[in-house]
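Provenance and format

Records in this collection were gathered into a single text stream. Each protein contributes a sequence line and a token line. The two records reproduced below are adjacent in the stream.
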Amino acid sequence: MRSVKAARVIGMLVIASGRVWAQTAGITLQIRPHVNDTLRMRLDQQTEMTGVRRTTAGEVTAIVVNTMKMFSRAIVEGATEKGTNLLAVTDSVLLTTTDDLARAAAQRAELELRGKQMRFRVSWDGTVGMNESDPGASREIAQVVSLMPAAFPKAAIKLGESWIREVALPPSQQFGAQIPGKLHITFRLDSLTHGGDWAFVSMRGELKPVVAPPANSGATLERGTVNGTMLVDQKRGWLTESWFTIVTISVITPPLMTGIGATHVQMRITQHMHTERR
């Protein structure tokens, strides 16, 4: 009985010493999954767009809500000095929309995504790159499946420390217009649990418009915000869970020949990703 209690005390001391070491010496956050591991993920995303246009008769408001539920796998095929090579497989996807005109397109997209395979590479800091041998994979699908915000610093960081990154806004359409922009984000290592194996990282930032939007886009970003939290499993080398909310305010101006006034649009993207335990 005493030996059992002693073992528990020793175990608690080992865990505590690991936490103290991580707080004082710092840890290096990395996306570095083990070769031959299969990461099974579920992605839930909702995009709510509200457009308001002023007319001579008053204001006209349109609201569109799109949802996506995706189950996918990332199979770790190998690792190099540049990062990890993965094969992503979309097992199933369910898309819904309140836009009657877009419903048929959503159904076609479901069929196209189901069973889709693509290869990509993830660097240790979380940067995602497409595999040179798979040029046909679309960038949009790559960003949805990979779920990796290029976030982590290369050097070790201590608990409570912050770092800044600037990343491109994920591709999105607002009432048919592409909204370009960059996310200026401050990340922070908030806490460590499970003996330092689990790291909670928060993110807060703002969305800035690009200097020169694409020609004929008709869209101008005014402002935006991003908030989120990531749970990094250091032992597995992957995101165990993540929560993100992006809100943008923009103006879409149709060509003058249409005679249609500008539309002020608010878009809210809410995303939750969960990786199954082994």
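Adjacent record:
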Amino acid sequence: MDLKQEEQDFEGKWLRGQNNHHTNVTKHIVMLTYNIWFGKFRMFQRMKGIGKIITDLKPNVITLNEVTAENIFLLKSQDWFHKYKLVPPDLMRGDSYFVVLLTNFPTKSWKIRPFDNSRMGRKLLIVELGIPSGSFDIALTIATSHFESMAFNTKQREWQLKKSIEMLSLSNNVCLMGDLNLELEVDGEVVLPPPWYDAWLSLPGNSHDNGYTWDPSINSMNNDGSTKNRFDRVLCKLLDFTVHSMKVVGKKQLSPDVFPSDHFGLLTVLTLQGKSAGHASLADTTKTKSVVFKRPPNWE
């Protein structure tokens, strides 16, 4: 077998989320975050498209944003859904749309923290998972949120990200992922306190330009005149895992002018590797002790 074939075989294994069940050790964690859009436009077709993406990629952890009673009902009716535990298990009553997490790992605990400054009812969902690792489980915290939208809410987003990082930083292994609504033209570069880092930008060859999850030049369902953005992000602080790879998903049309969502999703693969020295040194190039939005000139 040549080297290229070996690499393809390895890639296929982690994309399928296959772990070593004989030794009860989880080597790879496949995570998907997706804003699935609350819009009623072709919802039945779009939710089938979301389901196919999940069926094909077999993620271990899924965070969904803009979930409604209608679209979660359509997802629950699909075969793949019952292979996962839903958190929270009941609909968020009183909210027109909300965030959820699905996982096939054991869940140790979960909680929801509303943002005091949100006029849109935005919250942070925090779930602690137990990742099998031989004779013991490694704790991995996954948090998801849908931060305040619209450019003029940049100060609210900054506060929400700061509060999220503060609440999550006690965990050794934690990822915050979801539609953080970060707008490059208004929020600018987001500087995270070490050892936190932006998973997409931590990988060689990645930049804002090849990581757009909101792209009107591709997705014809984005017809509001907005610009390309990395609204959806994965931010990590990891001691026992490293970010192996990431890719943008959901960029194929289901039919003319119909995509699974107005956003694209992000697939992230973590590898169990011990202390993430490389990422720690990357983050240590900054001196900040808190989140900083380095806004561009004339951002107002």
